[in-house]
Design goal:
heterodimer; A: alpha+beta; D-Maltodextrin-Binding Protein, domain 2; Dipeptide-binding Protein, domain 1; Dipeptide-binding Protein, domain 3; seven-stranded mixed β-sheet; globular; B: mainly beta; Rossmann fold; 45% strand
């Protein structure tokens, strides 16, 4: 087994990074306007998923990010910065945190942002699954207490799960939106009509009025139709799945892309048929990541066997991504588990990847079938996508672990300590990292100043339109 | 078991029999060689390798795991360290390991030390996998990233930048004072005092902005004629600061009030050929909701001005001309009551300022490039007629130029640069003539 990349592999890697850099340059070219941004106009977005929630399996809803703010936000390097909270402090070895609210902030309906509103919103958003034990409003501050230390709480509060808002009436002629709809963000939800979600500029936004007057998000549009609409000027911003990045370049679309931020991983049940750890280890050794990367994702991903990408840690190479069928069979030994089911979250590419994994597992002696949409609810294996929530390795690791149900905080912050945490978790073989994929969008010619967040969500509050009136 | 030990009798250094004895030629050569080698050693000591410290740390960690003995050492480089540096890193590691009793060799050994020189976005990381039989243990040390040298621009007129202030807070405008610097931020005015270590924040005063802030805020700050204070303008507010020279910087008094008064956009702009022009002052009304000047200025000029982002006064053959950069991206020269388009400005961004260099025509326009953002640049232009002619190579600013203005004496300009990491740097930009 060759653990080290050959020169040819390195060259290919550099070539891929070269392509990525080209895309990042494209991003840079779009990142600011030729002149200062103009105000006005309607920016039209098309997406594959639901216009409001963007689909249950996709974190980072574009619309919700524009309507709601968190207590904190993450800057480009992943550091927590003030948002609705202007400052914060921890006590008692990070068991107690106090956040001071920004004064003068109002919700879209004109009501003032208060600590009790924040408490209600946060309690409603995560319920019993919150990282903290209790949250209380104390004057104009919000106090969190926890049984375990929460060193990463400011970064965690920047996540989508903890956006501040509440349910309220919007445009009466439009279809109601689920969950909270009233926030403090740069746009207010104007309603869903004929499949188009309208967001209106918030003139009194605490961050300043956004440049465009209105954003229209049309949901459930297939990628092919999105690209067609972009080419004829019916849309300004459309999605580019990682597996179609090369095709987008060939069609000369203007593409903005992130670094690899989306982890494609196989979740393995640690009970039932796969309760035996050796069986789970055998599954991990049977998966051929190169085939998935090369064939299905068109070499746009970064193969990984670690939870965090190499760009964040520098030690990802310590987790070998190479398959070893002999060792997988050896670990399986004489055990013959009953037939297993594998489900895949997401679209066609995920289904193809699931089928490829099934072939790998059959080679190692497992009997696996891909579960269809009408298949059994319980599955032994789930192919899913997880989003890298931060550029800070400690916060990113904690967020990833939380998203797969490991609630204990990551207290280590040195490379060696983080490696130990990753190693211990991966040794349970309940999650098998496969690929890191970039997120990308194609942009129309009249959009100026568009940037993507670290996790690939367009920051439309800073974008403007060149031909705006 | 018999152990043989020899104890040498204590001896003093023998006295030199003759200090005046002639040195023979071979000894002289040897002495010169020794002195030269000593000097080279000193030189090496004076310039230590940047890898010494991480190599020593990693060797210590490896030895702590492996203990004294022999091991096979392999090194691979996954980082941006040039490959010609690897032999010296290997030598350092071997020496440091030897110091801890670990003899690193290339021969087959039961133990293997696999060192990988890696890196992430923030730092370099040296990782050692220590393989003993079936067991592999890992040690890591992090290495501070190296400093890259910026490329030097090449041109007849050379622009240079010097960082004055770096801060996490967005700076809209700044004014150098005799004792430091005053920076205008969207919500506060920050006063810095000059110390031996550089600028140190002394005081912050809230502007008390009551109306909703704007997305692309701008500001103007101008020194009072007596030098004992400033007037600063942000959208919807005006602030006055005063300071008694005898008092420390912390004794600034700043008062802010709501105001829609016009902003002084051209104060004391000096026309080289006309010293009296130093008194020129033009104010412009600002659209606080849309972040541009409306086109209404006072005192009025003989032409109707469109809404604009930037303006500058330039000496022209028949007096002075007002150069404006409209919100439609068109640059126009207003002179003799007429606004005429200026060619050669297609690559200009929205901001420009006038720099008095003494080179060429004496004054140049410094315009931000429309290099569109993450890597903005500044470039000098001359405007002999109706066409802007480049007068320098672009000066890379390392981020997005968010504000640009001339210093009161016109001999330098200031730029605010927002980096990708969201840091804000106030840079002083000067020019030198390469003749």
């Amino acid at each position: 087994m060759n653990r080290y990349p050959t020169l040819a592999t390195k060259t290919k890697t550099w070539r891929r990074w070269g392509t990525l850099c080209f895309m990042l340059v494209s991003l840079a070219l779009l990142a600011a306007a030729r002149t200062r941004p103009h105000y006005g106009g309607t920016l039209r977005v098309e997406i594959e998923g639901d216009a409001w929630t963007q689909g249950a399996h996709q974190r980072g809803s574009l619309a919700r990010r524009l309507v709601f703010d968190g207590l904190t936000r993450l800057d480009a390097d992943g550091t927590a910065r003030p948002a609705l909270a202007v400052r914060w402090a921890s006590e008692n070895n990070d068991h107690r945190w106090q956040f001071w609210l920004r004064p003068g902030v109002h919700f879209h309906d004109g009501s003032a942002l208060t600590a009790s509103a924040v408490e209600t919103s946060l309690t409603g958003s995560c319920g019993a699954g919150c990282p903290w034990t209790a949250v209380h409003a104390v004057g104009s501050t919000v106090v969190f207490t926890a049984d375990s230390p929460l060193p990463n709480l400011p970064a965690l509060l920047a996540g989508d799960d903890f956006l501040i808002g509440y349910a309220g009436p919007i445009d009466s002629s439009a279809t109601a939106l689920p969950g909270p709809t009233i926030g403090t963000g740069p746009f207010q939800a104007g309603g869903l009509s004929n499949g188009v979600l309208t967001l209106l500029a918030n003139d009194s936004c605490w961050q300043g009025r956004p440049f465009v007057d209105k954003i229209e998000i049309r949901g459930y549009v297939p990628i092919r139709d999105q690209w067609l609409d972009l080419s004829v000027g019916r849309a300004d911003l459309v999605q580019v799945p990682a597996e179609q990045l090369r095709q987008a370049q060939q069609q000369r679309l203007t593409v903005v892309s992130t670094r690899p931020v989306e982890l494609l991983a196989l979740a393995v049940a640690d009970s039932g048929a796969l309760g035996n750890q050796n069986l789970r280890a055998a599954i991990a050794l049977a998966v051929d990541r190169s085939a998935i990367s090369n064939v299905i994702f068109q070499k746009q991903g970064e193969i990984t066997a670690g939870l965090l990408p190499s760009a964040l840690t520098g030690y990802a190479f310590l987790f070998s991504p190479d398959p070893d069928l002999d060792k997988a069979r050896e670990l399986r030994g004489g055990l013959t588990p009953p037939p297993l089911t594998l489900a895949a979250e997401g679209g066609a590419a995920m289904q193809l990847a699931a089928q490829r994994i099934v072939l790998n597992l059959r080679d190692a002696g497992f009997n696996v079938q891909v579960a269809g949409n009408s298949g059994p609810r319980h599955t032994d294996l789930v192919l899913l996508r997880l989003t890298l929530a931060s550029n800070q390795p400690q916060a990113a690791l904690e967020s990833l672990l939380r998203s797969v149900g490991v609630a204990s905080p990551v207290l280590e912050n040195t490379p060696a300590g983080l490696f130990k945490v990753e190693r211990e978790f991966l040794d349970t073989h309940t999650l098998i990292p496969l690929l890191y994929l970039p997120r990308a969008w194609a942009v129309g010619g009249r959009v100026r100043g568009l940037r993507l967040s670290r996790d690939g969500v367009p920051l439309l509050d800073g974008a403007s339109l060149e031909a705006a009136p | 078991m018999h152990s043989k030990s020899r104890i040498s009798p204590k001896r003093y250094n023998p006295r030199k029999r003759s200090v005046q004895r002639k040195l023979n030629p071979m000894k002289l050569v040897w002495l010169v060689a020794m002195v030269a080698s000593g000097l080279m050693g000193l030189a090496a000591y004076a310039a230590p390798s940047p890898w010494e410290s991480p190599a020593a740390s990693l060797a210590e960690e490896i030895a702590g795991i492996l203990g004294p003995g022999q091991a096979r050492l392999t090194i691979r480089n996954l980082s941006t360290i040039p490959s010609d540096e690897i032999p010296s890193i290997r030598l350092l590691l071997e020496q440091d390991l030897k110091g801890h009793g670990v003899l690193a060799s290339g021969v087959e050994s039961a133990n293997t030390i696999r060192v990988t020189l890696s890196e992430n976005l923030r730092e370099r990381l040296w990782v050692s996998e220590i393989v003993e039989g079936n067991e592999t243990r890992v040690a890591m040390v992090h290495v501070e990233p190296g400093i890259s040298q910026p490329a030097q621009p090449e041109s007849g007129l050379t622009l240079r930048k010097q960082a004055v202030l770096t801060t996490r807070e967005p700076v809209l405008a700044a004014l150098e004072t005799p004792d430091g610097l005053v920076a205008v931020e969207p919500d506060e005015i920050a006063i810095y005092a000059q110390t031996a270590e550089g600028l140190r924040e002394q005081k912050r005063v809230g502007i008390g902005q009551k109306r909703a802030s704007v997305r692309d805020p701008r500001s103007v700050i101008a020194a009072l004629p007596d030098g004992a204070g400033f007037d600063a303008y942000v959208p919807g507010m005006a602030c006055s600061g005063s300071h008694l020279p005898a008092q420390p910087a912390g004794e600034w008094t700043v008062h802010c009030r709501e105001s829609d008064d016009p902003w002084p956009i051209l104060v004391g702009t000096i026309l080289q050929s006309d010293p009296a022009s130093g008194s020129i002052s033009i104010k412009a009304f600002y659209n606080a909701a849309r972040d541009y000047f409306t086109g209404v200025v006072t005192p009025s000029v003989d032409a109707e001005l469109p809404p604009f982002y930037s303006a500058a006064l330039l000496p022209r053959s028949d007096g002075a001309g007002l150069l404006i950069n409209g919100i439609d991206g068109k640059v126009q020269m207003v002179e003799s009551g007429l606004a005429k388009p200026v060619a050669g400005t297609r690559d200009w961004g929205s901001d420009f300022a006038v720099l008095r260099t003494g080179c060429g025509a004496g004054m140049q326009i410094i315009a931000s490039g429309s290099g569109e953002a993450a890597a903005d640049s500044l470039r000098a232009y001359e405007l002999p007629g109706q066409e802007a002619i480049p007068a320098s190579a672009p000066l890379a600013m390392g981020g997005t130029v968010t504000a640009l203005w001339s210093a009161p004496d016109g001999k330098s300009i200031f730029a605010v640069v927002q980096s990708a990491a969201n840091q804000f740097e106030v840079d002083r930009v000067t020019a030198s003539c390469n003749e």
